[in-house]
Amino acid sequence: MSSKPHDHSHGHSHDHSHEHGEFSDLSDTELRVRTLETLLTEKGYIDTDAVNELIDTYETKVGPRNGAAVVARAWGDAEYRTRLLTNATAAIAELDYKGRQGEHMIAVENTDTVHNMVVCTLCSCYPWPVLGLPPIWYKSAPYRSKVVIDPRGVLEDFGVEISADKEITVWDSTAEVRYLVIPQRPSGTDGWSEEKLAKLVTRNSMIGTGYALNPDQLVGEVQA
Amino acid sequence: MSSKPHDHSHGHSHDHSHEHGEFSDLSDTELRVRTLETLLTEKGYIDTDAVNELIDTYETKVGPRNGAAVVARAWGDAEYRTRLLTNATAAIAELDYKGRQGEHMIAVENTDTVHNMVVCTLCSCYPWPVLGLPPIWYKSAPYRSKVVIDPRGVLEDFGVEISADKEITVWDSTAEVRYLVIPQRPSGTDGWSEEKLAKLVTRNSMIGTGYALNPDQLVGEVQA
Amino acid sequence: MNGGQDLGGMQGFGPVIEEQNEPHFHADWEARVLGLVLATGPLGLWNIDIGRHARETIPPQDYLSFSYYQIWLAGLEKLIARNHLLDEGVTAKTKGLTKLTLKNVATTLARGGPANREAQSAARFKVGDQITTRNFNPTTHTRLPRYLRGHTGEIVIVHGAHVFPDDAAHKELHDRGENPQWLYTVRFKATDIWGPDKNPNDHVHADLWEPYFVQ
Amino acid sequence: MNGGQDLGGMQGFGPVIEEQNEPHFHADWEARVLGLVLATGPLGLWNIDIGRHARETIPPQDYLSFSYYQIWLAGLEKLIARNHLLDEGVTAKTKGLTKLTLKNVATTLARGGPANREAQSAARFKVGDQITTRNFNPTTHTRLPRYLRGHTGEIVIVHGAHVFPDDAAHKELHDRGENPQWLYTVRFKATDIWGPDKNPNDHVHADLWEPYFVQ
């Protein structure tokens, strides 16, 4: 039994003081945000309906199913795959996915010899039009710090096995270029429709922290 | 007036959880320490009188007056200065200052052309036998991060002026060698006794974040 | 700047943990912060690089303790304060600003903010060239992370000229505007960046502007 | 390891602020932590390098938020837990350990813990030699900070052989003991370490062991 006499309450003390960014609990943060929104609205800088629509767009309309459709088409259509690898921004726009945080897209393809992983070590750059908003782990210090120095350790964290003689290539999104990983098409999917193929394409497989699902993983699997 | 709607309470929230090191306020820390000491004592690992004596040693017996005596002697005694610059550990031991965190001493001398500053970027290494326990700022992230990359900025933080054509040399205590800066002897102190000279030697002047006092600063000046 | 945001190669944060069935937002205020950031951007008072610098100047101990939307919130508060948006007597009208309305949301998002610009000069490097990154440590904004400074890599993509963040983030310091520079994807060997014990098959790519290279 | 402790060259923490009339301790518990660390060291269960590694493995967001005695406390708790000192039924007696007593305090402090050892071989470098530091990024303990990796400097002092922390901190991983190595003070130009905009007069010195140098 541990003899550590301290608890795990949320919040910890500071002996040093600093002048900004502090708040004691979530309700304080909530109050800060509410006050900010109220003031910005009152002073005419923002429109509540627009704010709601912005949130709704990324909560319900834009997400990794977009990217899955792109990948499925690339798997099924050799000419589309070539266009995607040559000019990803245009090829993705063919499916009407474009705009903010997807202005300059590059698609990188996993093969038998290369596995791609995407990160933004400096902030949280992520291809919104095809993947939606990034998950917490993508924006977190553990992922951002580790994947460039120990990508194999990150794959282990995700329970993903990879051979030591396969190249791992990490793409650090340091500019306004955004990366989409095209995972390898699973075997046993010959003749599948794009709709059915898309179901195999998980969000993590398009970041590089996972593979596409195998057909036998499809039943009952929640699509991330 | 600032319109920021958040307060400055001590403590802030964590959305992520981690498994150790958290505690909600100082009284929790106090409780942890008390429990730890009680258990260690009960199980026979430590002796309360010894713990008290260890604390008392560094609270009341060992401090920067030791270093000031060393510096004053070096200022007044050319042969001692040579011994100090050649073998600081032995020269400092002549004054009976030695032991823990002073096992391997090097004295570095400020001149008209070189100003020395001491840091431990990786932890808090400090020459205890001559300077006692380090002040908070010496152990703090601002000092440890900045003095190696921007020593002139640190001097500015301390209100210390230095010419751009004087060399600043920083000593990062990465091993068990400990550094003592010998500040420049102020003018107007000819013929002063070692006792009187020692009063000019501040703690900061022996770390390099200050100069020795001038004679006219001596009256009413609290010796750090 | 070498702030809390410059995380590449740091160690000790523990494993990457994926939350199962992660919601888009973990509290209502997170959604509002996203909305506020997206809604205030079109006011045109700051660009993406200024926004990033506002976040990366959060003191490292806070940057690393905050959740990501707390970082965004702290950054947004700075930008709002710096532009005096909430000062007494100041309104969008007095500032001559037009707010984003509901009917413009979709087109604004679809337009995004392309960073490519007409080149001011010919590209100095081509695919296959070896480059060495500069060693510098500005206190200002840069997108050359510490772990890629002073290393040699190979150019694998030439993107054209893009807004140069190191200048675009600092209108207050100098008047270089967007100062577009050639942008390249550079391929580095993991063994070159991190040392010989790394897997010799592994590589890291980053998108770097011409001024980041030793000329 | 590239943990929260590796602070050299980080930016954004703000100015160095000196507390006027700073007390030795800001709370009673700080004094007790100092006393506990100093009193448990002589039990001989860990050395200074193991102690440092216990502190630097505190997650960076905590390391940077804790006060320094909180860091010491968290490190001490780890060492105590790892050595099972407080497990049920375990005592100093059952472990065969002798506690530091009052009468031994002065001599124990006066003796300290010298790190110099007999050299296992001749020194490979002498004063005036140029050396280049290795580029490595171990997850284990090292005293070669990130900001000094892959840089060239000049040897200015030869200290003799000292306990090699990278090995002494990791008895659990390998049995190299103290593996003493030649220790040197190396002088680096600020412009070499940080870039050409630094003052060409300025230098940084660090104490580095022979295995840190490219051979």
CATH topology of the domain at 60-215 in chain A: Nitrile Hydratase, Chain A
Strand-pairing-aware structural class of chain A? alpha/beta
The helix-strand sequence of chain C is: HHHHHHEEEHEHE
CATH class category label of the domain at 60-215 in chain A? Alpha Beta
Average pLDDT level of chain C: 97
Strand content of chain A: 5-15%
| General form of chain C | globular
**What count of domains describes the coordinates of chain C?**
2
Low-confidence stretches of chain A: 1-24
Describe this structure as you would to a colleague.
The complex is a heterotetramer, with two copies of chain A (224 residues) and two copies of chain C (215 residues). Chain A has 224 residues and is α/β, with parallel strands linked by helices. The two termini of chain A are 38 Å apart. A two-stranded parallel sheet of chain A has the order 1-4. In chain A, strands 2-3 form a two-stranded parallel sheet. The longest helix of chain A has 17 residues, at 26-42. Chain A contains eleven helices and four strands. Chain A has helices spanning 26-42, 48-61, 64-76, 78-86, 88-93, 128-131, 136-139, 141-146, 151-157, 194-198, 203-207; strands spanning 104-109, 114-119, 167-172, 177-182. In chain A, α3 (64-76) crosses α4 (78-86). The model of chain A is unreliable at 1-24 (pLDDT under 50). Chain A has a domain at 60-215: Nitrile hydratase alpha /Thiocyanate hydrolase gamma (Nitrile Hydratase, Chain A, Alpha-Beta Complex), CATH 3.90.330.10. Chain A is globular, with a radius of gyration of 21 Å. Chain C is globular. The longest helix of chain C has 15 residues, at 68-82. Chain C has eight helices and five strands, in the order ααααααβββαβαβ. In chain C, strands 1, 2, 3, 4 and 5 form a five-stranded antiparallel sheet that branches. Chain C is an alpha+beta fold. Chain C starts with 27 loop residues before the first helix and ends in a 6-residue tail after the last strand. Chain C has two domains: 28-111, no CATH class; 130-212, SH3 type barrels. In chain C, 28% of the residues lie in helices and 15% in strands. The model of chain C has no long low-confidence stretch (mean pLDDT 97). Chains in contact: A-B, A-C, A-D, B-C, B-D, C-D. β3 of chain B pairs parallel with β5 of chain D, so a sheet runs across the interface.
